[in-house]
């Protein structure tokens, strides 16, 4: 057994001894029952201290390679050879893993272009504009958060989220959205999916009816189907969700009244009244997904459903469009008792959200950077929105499509007839280097067809060039 010690490398000497002895055992140069050289002797052979060799032997013993007894010294244990391990691995069948959703319930909710070709101008959805000014401000907030001297900021915390952050959110909601709530009516979450999941676990029972907009936000239905709810698609017309088609047994209605996703429609006042009446009479919850109402370019902010019926509404706000999706922070707002119930489930499942992210968000609010960011982004998006609407209006695309979403938000829908061939159009656009997305993956039973274009992350010149090229590509088809 020849052990070589290399003093010029950073690896500790005792670890070098350990690794080499393991190699001897695994290669069969040392067999089960063979004694190791006594530690004093090995130390003098290697020119190292005895305690170094003792440390190595202790490590080998704790890893199960050797045993030590008073009389027998240190000996190699019986170790299962590698081939036997590999053989066993082959014969042990894997533990079966059941599908999360049944085949019929699986939806392809996050459309990807079926090609390796990368568009040079990609109108992808769900992506805000993330520029250097924002990143710098966020970094500043993070650096302050991470220097927190408060020991409580590093320990376990409230499942609702940090009180200071919820206070900031409650102030923000009052200023920006006309929603007045106490911090104990706010629960911080990890975005739309986790929020839907909490609602399913905390407020619903398996098999309950959940009505969703169709076309709509696939996260709403996939999360609910995953929790075995009975998802009912409800059509959307030019006033919003068709309330007269809601099943009376609906326990939850998921809706995007301020900017219907993805059709872009604003829910009319009458429709809101009808929905409120339905929810009150049927004692149903409404999940009001207010994902991008900061970005309204015409008129003032639209009153939320929440401000009209706080008792039945779970109001969802996300920081994905407001800041960046990777931040993964959102909030659900509602009656104190319902929020307490959601917080309980949050506590069972994950105790609370990571503190540093929350502290950073709190700091971003407290410094005034959040309001500054929203105002700055609103101006940028307004310009880009005008550019896309204007270039679309002057293009031949208006012959084929109705342009939807002209007042609000970060995407536009070009709606075609039901026989419009989306796949063909997506392919033709891609051949011209333009990425656009079909409407159908956002539909359940609806046969509506069209193309969705996210523009927030694109510069005006790219938007204009992109639409011109799209118009040419679709005309040539
Ligand atoms: C309709 C809709 N609701 C909510 C969200 C926010 O989802 P999340 O908070 O999971 O990013 C998005 C994001 O793109 C959305 O499009």
From TrEMBL:
GO terms for molecular function: DNA binding; DNA-binding transcription factor activity; pyridoxal phosphate binding; transaminase activity. Its cofactor is pyridoxal 5'-phosphate. In the C-terminal section; belongs to the class-I pyridoxal-phosphate-dependent aminotransferase family. Keywords: Aminotransferase, DNA-binding, Pyridoxal phosphate, Transcription, Transcription regulation, Transferase. This is PLP-dependent aminotransferase family protein. It holds the Pfam family Aminotran_1_2. InterPro entries: Aminotransferase_I/II_large, HTH_trans_reg/aminotransferase, PyrdxlP-dep_Trfase, PyrdxlP-dep_Trfase_major, Tscrpt_reg_HTH_GntR, WH-like_DNA-bd_sf, WH_DNA-bd_sf. PANTHER family: HTH-TYPE TRANSCRIPTIONAL REGULATORY PROTEIN GABR (PTHR46577:SF1). PROSITE patterns: HTH_GNTR. It comes from the Bacteria. Residues 11-79 form the HTH gntR-type domain.
């Amino acid at each position: 057994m020849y052990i070589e010690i290399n003093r010029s490398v950073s690896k500790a000497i005792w670890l070098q001894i350990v690794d080499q002895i393991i190699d001897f055992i695994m290669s069969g140069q040392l067999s089960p029952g063979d004694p190791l050289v006594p530690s004093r002797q090995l130390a003098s052979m290697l020119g190292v201290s005895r305690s170094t060799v003792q440390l190595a032997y202790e490590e080998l013993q704790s890893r199960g390679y050797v045993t030590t007894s008073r009389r027998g010294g240190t000996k190699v244990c019986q170790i299962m050879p590698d081939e036997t391990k590999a053989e066993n691995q082959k014969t042990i069948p894997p533990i079966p893993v059941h599908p999360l959703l049944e085949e019929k319930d699986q939806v392809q909710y996050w459309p990807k272009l079926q090609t390796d070709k990368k568009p040079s101008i990609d109108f992808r959805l769900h992506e805000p504009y993330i520029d250097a000014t924002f990143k710098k401000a966020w970094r500043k907030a993070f650096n302050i958060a991470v220097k927190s001297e408060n020991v409580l900021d590093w320990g376990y915390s409230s499942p609702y989220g940090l009180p200071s952050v919820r206070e900031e959110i409650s102030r923000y909601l009052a200023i920006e959205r006309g929603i007045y709530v106490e911090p104990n009516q706010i629960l911080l979450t990890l975005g739309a999916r986790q929020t839907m999941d909490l609602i399913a676990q905390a407020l619903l029972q398996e098999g309950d009816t959940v009505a969703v907009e169709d076309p709509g936000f696939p996260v709403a239905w996939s999360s609910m189907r995953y929790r075995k709810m009975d998802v009912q698609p409800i059509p959307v017309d030019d006033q919003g969700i068709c309330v007269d088609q809601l099943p009376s047994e609906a326990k939850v209605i998921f809706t995007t009244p301020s900017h219907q996703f993805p059709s872009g429609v604003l829910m009319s006042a009458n429709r809101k009244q009808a929905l409120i009446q339905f929810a009150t009479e049927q004692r149903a919850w409404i999940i009001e997904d207010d994902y991008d109402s900061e970005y309204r370019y015409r008129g003032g902010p639209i009153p939320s459903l929440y401000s009209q019926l706080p008792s039945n509404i779970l109001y969802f706000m996300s920081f994905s469009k407001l800041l960046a999706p990777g931040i993964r922070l959102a909030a659900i707002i509602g009656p104190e008792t319902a929020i307490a119930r959601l917080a309980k489930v949050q506590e069972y499942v994950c105790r609370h959200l990571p503190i540093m992210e929350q502290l950073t968000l709190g700091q971003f609010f407290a410094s005034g950077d959040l309001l500054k960011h929203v105002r700055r982004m609103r101006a940028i998006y307004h310009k880009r929105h005008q550019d896309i609407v204007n270039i679309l209006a002057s293009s031949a695309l208006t012959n084929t499509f109705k342009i939807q979403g002209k007042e609000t938000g970060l995407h536009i829908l070009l709606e075609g007839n039901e026989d419009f061939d989306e796949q063909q159009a997506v392919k033709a656009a891609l051949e011209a280097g333009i990425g656009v997305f079909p409407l159908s993956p956002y539909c359940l039973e609806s046969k509506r067809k069209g193309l969705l274009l996210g523009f927030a992350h694109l510069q005006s010149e790219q938007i204009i060039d992109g639409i011109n090229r799209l118009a040419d590509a679709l005309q040539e088809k």
